[in-house]
Amino acid sequence: GKKVFLLEPFFPWYLPDVSLAGGEPILIKLRPPSFSLIPFESEIRQAFQQRPRVVVVNTPHNPTGHVLSAAELELIAELCRKHDTIAVSDEAYESQTFGGTPHLRLVDLPGMAERTLTLGTSSKLLSLTGWRVGWLTGPADLVAAVRTMHSYASFCPPTPLQVGVAEALVELADGTEGRAENERIAQLMEGNAILLADALVRIKGVTAYPPQGGYFLVADISGTGMDDMAFCRWLIEEKSINAVPMSLFYAPRAGRDAPCTEVRFAICKERATIEQAVAQLEGGAPPAGA
């Protein structure tokens, strides 16, 4: 099978999709606090020596909230050009960046337009999560291949929803109201991340990694003596708060050296919901090693 380059942690759909397509993953694990590619440049370059047919990048990144910089994107673009690799750029959270961090597109770099598929979704850009309308842009031959596969999978969402999303995209491109609303939502989520992170770090043994964008906040709970599953269970049972164990965002490995100690929280909520969660986190810490 053809090889596919993936960065861990990753959206949990990526690995099964690679497997279903008969591909073989090449995995590079990014690490906190920044989850940046730059410290792992040599490992990434070495991985590309295996000549992956496809590389998947996601910015802003789910689950970590890392936003790829110009230097990081240029590293990927350079290696794609050198090894004739197709790029799939998942930009679902393109409108959600924080603190002036820009969203940059891989397709805009030299030599990448002819080899890049860019993914977007109304679920995030337009807050239409229930409509299930997304899109993909790229060179005609790659789009045609995806269209053929997709027609045998889900075919398409209802036509009226597609028409509605198309109209909304035109309005977003031509007007200021839609952009202002996206900016408002981004500011809301940035504030949510700050509030939630401040509450989490008051729990003994917890470290929070502030995101640069996206819908999520990652925390490390290794200091509690618990793994991700135990901590999430404690949150539900004792605090009535639901989080996602980050082990779901890594490839399963036999004989894993250490348990996963990272947890993902959603910040895509109204401020009152985050404030309620913060209040519920007050008072009491998980029992060590529970």
From TrEMBL:
Cofactor: pyridoxal 5'-phosphate
Top-level taxonomy: Eukaryota, Discoba, Euglenozoa, Euglenida, Spirocuta
Keyword Transferase: yes
Chain ranges of the Aminotransferase class I/classII large domain: 1-256
GO cellular component, one term: mitochondrion
Pfam families in the record: Aminotran_1_2
Identification of the protein by name: Aminotransferase class I/classII large domain-containing protein
Biological source species: Eutreptiella gymnastica
GO molecular function, one term: pyridoxal phosphate binding
